[in-house]
Design brief:
This protein is α/β, with parallel strands linked by helices and 379 residues long. 49% of the residues lie in helices and 11% in strands. The protein has 18 helices and 8 strands. An 8-stranded parallel sheet has the order 1-2-3-4-5-6-7-8. The longest helix has 24 residues. It is globular and about 65 Å long.
C-alpha cells in the first residue's frame, strides 16, 4: 500500500490497518456517468445537473489516486476512467478499492438509503474485513411510528431502539440536520411528547423538535445502559443541512447534562473541527473525527488535520471516511488520511516535538486503537 504524495512517509502509517468508525455501504447497482458524478457531491443530482462534480478536489483525487487501481495512468481522463470502471464491473472495482484502503473494521451506519447499498454482511464479503452496525436513532423512530402510530410510540421506540442497539456497537443521531444542535437540553414531558406525536403525519420524516429531543434522551439512556457511544453529525453535510446550526459547541448545554459515562463522538466537524477539538480537550467523554473532508476537501486535508490536532488529546481523535456509494471514497479517505498524518508527524519529528515511537503511538491511536476502545471491538 502506498501513501501518496510523501515519499518519506512513515512506513508504519502506510501499513497500519485502519478502523473506519463511520461509513456506509457501497452501491449495489451499476453506475452511469451521472450516477457516479452525483455520488461525488453532497448536493446530489440537483448539483450534478447544474455543474460537473468531477471538476472538483474530489474528482481530481479520483483521477490521481484511484486510476492506478484500475490499471490506468494517474490523471487519466474521466471518460477513460469510467469506461475502465464499467468494463471491470462493480464487484471487481469494489474489491480493488476496499483492499487498497487497508481497513480492518468498518462501523457502518445502516440508516441512510440502506436499500441502495450493500449490507454490513455484503460489505464484509466484498472487503474481507470485520463489519459492525451503527444504529441511526431517527430511522428507528420513523420505523416505529410507521408500525404502531402515536399511541404506542413511546414504549415501543424505547424497546426497539434498545433491541437494535444490543446487536450494534454504537448509536447515531442526525439531529443537527433536523433541528440543529442548539437544543433545549431539558427532557420533554410525556404530555409534550404525546401532543407532538398527535401532529406527526404518517409517512413523513421525524422533524418535530420535541420528538427529536425525546428520542435523543432515550438514546442516551440506551447508550448508558449498554455502554456504547453516541455519534452526532456535526459540520459538513448535504444540502438539507443549515451549516451554522451544526457547530458542535452549540451542543454544550447537553454535554453538561448527559451522564459522563456516555461517550459522545462528533462526526466530520469541518469547518468546526477546531471547535470539536476544544470540546474533546475539556470534556472527558467527548471524541471527534475530521472525516468526510478527507475526500471532499482532499487537496486541503493536510491543513485540516493539522488544525484538528492543535489542541485535541490524541486519544480523542478517530479516523473515518463517511464513504457512501462509491468504493473510491473508502480508498481516497484512507490515502489522504495516511498522507496527511505522515506529513504532519514527519514535521513534528523534524522540529523535535516527538520521537519516532511517539509518532507510531499517535498514528496507531488515531488510526485504530481509539476506535477499538471506544466501541469495544474486542481486541
Amino acid at each position: 500500500m502506498r501513501t501518496s504524495g510523501h515519499p518519506e512517509a512513515l512506513s508504519f502509517i502506510s501499513d497500519l490497518e485502519l478502523v473506519d468508525h463511520h461509513c456506509h455501504g457501497v452501491s449495489v447497482a451499476p453506475l452511469s456517468h451521472d450516477d457516479f458524478a452525483s455520488l461525488l457531491t453532497e448536493g446530489g443530482r440537483e448539483m450534478s445537473a447544474a455543474i460537473d462534480p468531477i471538476a472538483s478536489p474530489l474528482g481530481l483525487a479520483v483521477r490521481s489516486l484511484c486510476a492506478p487501481l484500475l490499471d490506468l495512468d494517474p490523471h487519466a481522463p474521466i471518460e477513460e476512467y469510467l469506461w475502465r470502471r464499467s468494463s471491470l464491473g462493480a464487484p471487481a472495482v469494489t474489491r480493488r478499492m476496499l483492499a487498497g484502503a487497508g481497513l480492518s473494521d468498518l462501523l457502518i451506519d445502516t440508516g441512510h438509503l440502506s436499500d441502495q447499498v450493500l449490507t454490513p454482511d455484503g460489505m464484509k464479503e466484498a472487503g474481507r474485513f470485520e463489519t459492525h452496525e451503527i444504529v441511526r436513532i431517527e430511522a428507528v423512530a420513523e420505523e416505529v411510528f410507521a408500525s404502531v402510530g402515536a399511541e404506542g410510540f413511546i414504549d415501543e421506540f424505547a424497546h426497539r431502539l434498545a433491541s437494535r442497539a444490543r446487536g450494534a456497537v454504537g448509536l447515531k443521531s442526525i439531529i443537527a440536520y433536523r433541528a440543529g444542535l442548539s437544543l433545549d437540553p431539558d427532557r420533554p414531558s410525556v404530555e409534550a411528547v404525546s401532543e407532538a406525536l398527535a401532529g406527526w403525519s404518517p409517512g413523513s420524516r421525524l422533524e418535530d423538535v420535541v420528538l427529536l429531543r425525546h428520542c435523543l434522551w432515550v438514546a442516551v439512556e440506551v447508550a448508558e445502559d449498554l455502554g456504547i457511544p453516541l455519534q452526532l453529525h456535526s459540520g459538513f453535510g448535504d444540502r438539507d443541512l443549515e451549516l451554522w446550526r451544526a457547530d458542535p459547541t452549540r451542543f454544550t448545554p447537553w454535554l453538561r447534562r448527559i451522564p459522563s459515562s456516555v461517550n459522545i463522538c462528533f462526526l466530520h466537524c469541518w469547518p468546526y473541527h477546531r471547535q470539536a477539538a476544544f470540546l474533546a480537550a475539556v470534556h472527558p467523554n467527548v471524541y471527534f473525527d475530521a472525516g468526510e473532508v478527507n475526500t471532499h476537501a482532499a487537496l486541503g486535508y493536510d491543513r485540516i488535520l493539522a488544525e484538528a490536532l492543535e489542541v485535541a488529546p490524541f486519544e480523542k481523535v478517530l479516523y473515518s471516511s463517511d464513504a457512501f456509494g462509491l468504493p473510491e471514497l473508502y480508498y481516497i479517505g484512507s490515502m489522504r488520511f495516511r498522507s496527511a498524518l505522515s506529513s504532519l508527524l514527519e514535521d513534528w519529528q523534524r522540529r523535535g516535538f516527538c520521537s519516532p515511537s511517539d509518532a507510531a503511538e499517535i498514528a496507531t491511536a488515531i488510526g485504530r486503537s481509539n476506535a477499538e476502545k471506544l466501541y469495544r471491538l474486542g481486541r
